[in-house]
Amino acid sequence: MPFPRRTVIFAATVFVLNLGGAYLLDALGLVEGLLSPGGGRLAWLLPLAVVFYGARLLLLFVAPGLTLAAVAFWAICRRA
Amino acid sequence: MPSFLDRRPVRLALSLTAVLACAAVVPRAVCGHPAAALYADELGAQDALAREVAAYITSGVAASAFHTGSARFDGEWAFGTYTMASMGLGQVILAHPDRRDAYLPAMEQCAEQLTAPATNAFGTEAWGHSGLDGLPGGEGHAYLGYTNLAFGMLRLIAPDTRFAAVHDRLTEGLARRLAAAPHGLFETYPGEAYPADIAMVAGSIALHDCATGAPERPWLAAWRIAFLQWLDPASGLAYQSGVAARGSAGGAGPPRASGTALAAFALSFADRDLSRRLFQALRNGQSSLLGFGAVREYAVGHDGAGDIDSGPVVLGVSVSATGFTLSSAKLHDDQPFFTSLYRTADLFGVPVDRPSGRRFVSGGPLGNSILLAMTTATWAWQSRCARRVTP
Predict the structure, then answer these.
(1) What average pLDDT does the segment B337-351 reach?
(2) What is the pTM of this model?
(3) Among B108, B161, B201, B239, which one has the highest count of C-beta atoms within 10 angstroms of its own C-beta?
(4) Residue B149 lies in a domain
(5) Is residue B73 part of a domain?
(6) What's the ipTM?
(7) What local confidence, expressed as pLDDT, does residue A41 receive?
(8) Which of A73, A77, A79 to mutate: most B Cβ within 10 Å?
């Protein structure tokens, strides 16, 4: 069984999206943008926020278990 | 590979089990991690939030910083930012007196802004004149209870503040209106009255009297009884709105958690038992999943959408009710509930650490000020009273 590279890359990606996304949205002024009357910033801030929250939920609720299982399978197979 | 792992369904089942097990443990540990330090009033946790709020206040914030589409709501949000910032910073000073010099200037700036015509424009527009003119006479303007509570906290921290005179006048004006209110309620705007705002008025009067050593108001006991009519007998939640002249029998808005949670915080300065009673109602309306707690906005049997008071209502729970209830969970010694609510605030608020402190990305100026005030709520103000109080 090969090392679960795709799973680890997935976990690393959502981690980077979560960390980088938080600082990016902070720098862009998420709340101020969402309340902006012009709506121009809303057009790109909203999708960005949706992607960010999706990554955050995946990072916290899915990635740990998925990574744990994949690495455990790999380790068990390697020992066997 | 062991034979049992050869089968794809077995691997999928084991993976799913691992995902569910980790989902039940990891997020609650990660998001709940800062809650214990905040609950224990630890300097590092409080100071990180306070530094960020103070930096924002001293950098200048105005009604023009908000763009909700309503001039009234923009003004109210700026107004709320100053009020909650002042309360939060004051509470940090109460817990850590050595931070007084760091945060007192921001508190004074809040007071300055709260008396500025621009900040009060939303109220002036509604009534046709400023609520701060002609005190202690006048009518309505119950939103000034928020200003008065911020003044009270400032007075507690700095008894010789230059805002002492206006604080005294405002308190007397609000006290006169509350004493004369036939059903324990007076208007915020013409034709609009809100029990949560009146709770703020009552709390602000009590905090003033604590700070100045004034004797307890003789009408306060009667007001407490009158105010009970604004609590829904079934759920215990406060009605969101009412008709001041007719009492609750004359009609009231639905019992809702956002107003109740704010009232529970405000009334902690005036009536500990009533604050606890409201907290119990909020606790009964809690909703929890995997250790993430929230508070349902509407009482059982009532339904509605989110609005400017509640913020978004998702799956029946509201942002405001959940955030405001942090304070009463802390004040009334319910650490598990506080922690579960904080986890939700952390998950969706998204805290980031910056050189100026820690702030919640999705909170904005108002949300960060509210979270500071709610997570630093304390009974320590009692020990600073000029006379002994037992709210």
Answers:
(1) 97
(2) 0.93
(3) B201
(4) yes
(5) yes
(6) 0.91
(7) 73
(8) A73
At B86-135, the pLDDT tens digits run 999 999 999 999 999 999 999 999 999 999 998 898 889 999 888 888 77
The answer to whether the CB of B87 falls within 8 A of the CB of B366 is: no
Mean pLDDT confidence for B150-167: 97
| Cα separation values, B174 from B137, B144, B197, B211, B212, Å | 9, 8, 12, 16, 16
- Tell me the C-alpha distance between B153 and B95, whole Å: 13
Q: What is the CA radius of gyration of chain B?
A: 22
- B30 in contact with A at a CB cutoff of 8 Å? yes
| Span B7-35, average pLDDT | 95
Number of domains into which chain B is organized: 1
User: What domain range is B179 assigned to?
Assistant: 33-384
Residue B11 counted as domain residue: no
- DSSP secondary structure letter of residue B382: G
Closest-CA distance of chain A to residue B69, Å: 7
Q: Most distant CA pair in chain A: distance in Å?
A: 62
Number of H helices, E strands in chain B: 15, 6
Q: What CATH number corresponds to the domain at position B88?
A: 1.50.10.10
- With beta carbons under 8 A apart, name residues in chain A contacting B69: 37
Q: Based on C-alpha coordinates, what's the Rg of chain A?
A: 17
CA distance B223 to B134: 24
Tally of domains within chain A: 1
Comparing alpha-carbon positions, the chain A residue that sits nearest to B368 is A31
Residue B17 in domain? no
